[in-house]
Hints:
This protein is an alpha/beta fold. Helix content is about 30%, strand content about 20%. Helix 10 packs parallel to helix 11. The protein is globular and about 55 Å long. It binds adenosine monophosphate and magnesium ion (MG). Adenosine monophosphate (AMP) binds next to strand 6 and strand 9. Magnesium ion binds next to loops.
Amino acid sequence: xxxxxxxxxxxxxxxxxxxxxxxxxxxxxxxxxxxxxxxxxxxxxxxxxxxxxxxxxxxxxxxxxxxxxxxxxxxxxxxxxxxxxxxxxxxxxxxxxxxxxxxxxxxxxxxxxxxxxxxxxxxxxxxxxxxxxxxxxxxxxxxxxxxxxxxxxxxxxxxxxxxxxxxxxxxxxxxxxxxxxxxxxxxxxxxxxxxxxxxxxxxxxxxxxxxxxxxxxxxxxxxxxxxxxxxxxxxxxxxxxxxxxxxxxxxxxxxxxxxxxxxxxxxxxxxxxxxxxxxxxxxxxxxxxxxxxxxxxxxxxxxxxxxxxxxxxxx
Length: 315
Ligand code: AMP
Ligand code: MG
């Protein structure tokens, strides 16, 4: 059920149920991060493999030290600059975090989300919330309460309605290896923004066999319909015998079943609409979706990462 009642959502969480939690990135599937049983329900509800660890959410930096051992200097700088916000930091964990949360890793991924409802929920609880994106594993992340309700509604206590997610794609995940920052997943805070604070950082290339960060599997964030990326006029020609849906960046190809991500060519708007657009196209009476990449800069990197993975062969 979808609710705007914060106290109802809190009651669900306190009795060990899962809640669809609005954040500025995407909706999370939240539960008590200190309770192994609850965390286990999160994996089950999403059908998520246990090797894919969860992000733990809290509302204040001080609280992080309840479950994090230490923050390297660069992590402190990023936290000061971007929290509350769309960046997740991977930090050494304390034993209070169940192994299941971190897939047995000695680090835990942590974020303070920038959404007033999420922050009020987190402030009222005496435990942090483990919350992966609230979608069945491998499918497109949810950016509206209804998306969560449609796919996971019967498995959870409630979905707290916080409107449309403002950023629309997941957080950027940053880890620290030998005090060097490494971007595990591109997301809502751009490489350019991060480098302006801590200097040059490395972005980890994808690996499909050893997923270290979310969606590292080649096929992820993926609609159910076949999804092809390339030069749209070429793809239109190639697949002209089939019922096609088009997902374009800014250009109108004059196609009947087409969604334009941002007519102004604005990457933030494109990010915000991306997962909604994939879901819309998935529900249309079409056989396949064709799409194109956006400019590879700023938020465009995170958008292209999602597009490429939506288009990757299913494993
Ligand atoms: P999701 O919330 O579904 O976007 O997924 C969160 C992602 O954070 C997961 O896919 C993880 O791979 C990544 N993550 C969580 N914990 C760690 C960790 N300790 N080290 C590296 N990546 C992590
Ligand atoms: Mg996810």
